[in-house]
TrEMBL record:
Source organism per UniProt: Micromonospora humi
Keyword Ribonucleoprotein: no
High-level lineage: Bacteria, Bacillati, Actinomycetota, Actinomycetes, Micromonosporales
Protein name: Cellobiose ABC transporter membrane protein
Transmembrane regions: 38-64, 100-121, 133-155, 180-205, 236-255, 293-317
Record localization: Cell membrane
């Protein structure tokens, strides 16, 4: 009688290498789940540190010194630059007034026109695609080209606007010499360029509003005007706040339009008497013409604070108005 050695032999144990490799794979998976999210967001923090955090920190440091390319040594002056800027610099305050004047004249009409235009495009119209593309054209137009065209439109002797004023018996206006006239002319450039951009943002938000709300309001007898103010505007509150903050940041940093509006005369001074010199133009004038880099850093930080304050105020006002309605 023969014995079956294979049947009675005990089962062979699993090789230890398999367990070891399984443990290593499990550990690698745990490490991947633990650290991979940080690796995904690491590029953002690197870019932020290089292009945002470091420039801000360097600006803070340089604003506390008398840094200048004309001086080999750098001296720490503390808050002297800020004290001089706030208490003994009328040209800076002139730039602040000009900036806020053009900001109000450009931002308020810009957002109102964009809202009305988006509401019109949100209806059933023929050639909707054409109109939506048309309002996007100013966005892709070069700022230099826009400034050149509007400079010709507002020219004193041969401009289109003065020709229209003369045709109805009114005296021509020197759009570069008069403070308010220059504000108005520059604001129209800004409005023409950015009304379509904001209108497209509002239009995208309007199309996400449920049509059932409008149908229910129509059954209750609400007019289109009533539907707009009672349904559309409240539903657009987050979008309106967003565009208001973005317009505030852009309006207080206004630079290219007033610079090119001078048509080669005045440069960073913003006219013969600084009638349309903005804060950013004044900052570049201090840094590149007077070579006071430390003082320019103080101007930049004050501008940063003004933008933060105005953005916060606009946000709170927009929320208050929307909640009241």
């Amino acid at each position: 009688m023969s014995l079956d050695l294979h049947a009675t032999a005990p089962p062979e144990p699993r090789p230890p290498r398999a367990r070891t490799s399984h443990r290593r794979a499990s550990s690698a998976t745990k490490l991947d789940l633990k650290y991979s999210p940080y690796l995904y967001v690491l590029p953002f923090f690197v870019i932020f540190a290089v292009f945002s955090a470091y420039p801000i920190a360097y600006t803070v440091w340089i604003a506390l010194t008398d840094r200048s390319p004309l001086n080999a040594t750098i001296s720490f002056v503390g808050m002297d630059n800020f004290v001089e800027l706030i208490t003994d610099d009328p040209q800076f305050w002139n730039a602040v007034v000009n900036t806020f004047g053009m900001f109000v004249l450009s931002t308020v009409p810009q957002l109102l026109l964009a809202l009305m235009l988006a509401n019109a495009l949100n209806r059933r119209l023929r050639a909707q695609t054409f109109f939506r593309m048309a309002i996007a054209m100013p966005i892709i137009t070069s700022t230099a080209v826009v400034a050149l065209i509007f400079s010709m439109i507002y020219a004193k002797d041969f401009g289109l606007v003065n020709w229209l004023l003369d045709s109805i018996g009114l005296d021509p206006i020197d759009w570069r010499a008069n403070r308010f006239a220059s504000w108005f002319a520059i604001s129209t450039m800004v409005d023409w360029r950015w009304v379509g951009y904001n209108a497209l943002i509002y239009l995208a938000a309007m199309q996400s509003i449920s049509k059932d709300m409008y149908e229910a309001a129509a059954l209750d007898g609400a007019s289109r005007r009533r539907q707009f103010w009672s349904i559309t505007v409240p539903q657009l509150r987050p979008t309106i706040i967003f565009t208001l903050i973005i317009s505030t940041i852009g309006g207080l940093q206004l630079f290219t339009e007033p610079l090119l509006f001078t048509s080669g005369s005045g440069g960073l001074s913003g006219g013969s008497e600084g009638q349309f010199q903005t804060i950013t133009m004044y900052l570049l004038d201090v840094m590149n013409q007077r070579f006071r880099w430390g003082y320019a850093g103080a101007v930049a930080l004050v501008l940063f604070v003004l933008i933060a304050l105005m953005s916060t105020v606009n946000y709170l006002l927009a929320r208050r108005i929307s909640s009241d309605k």
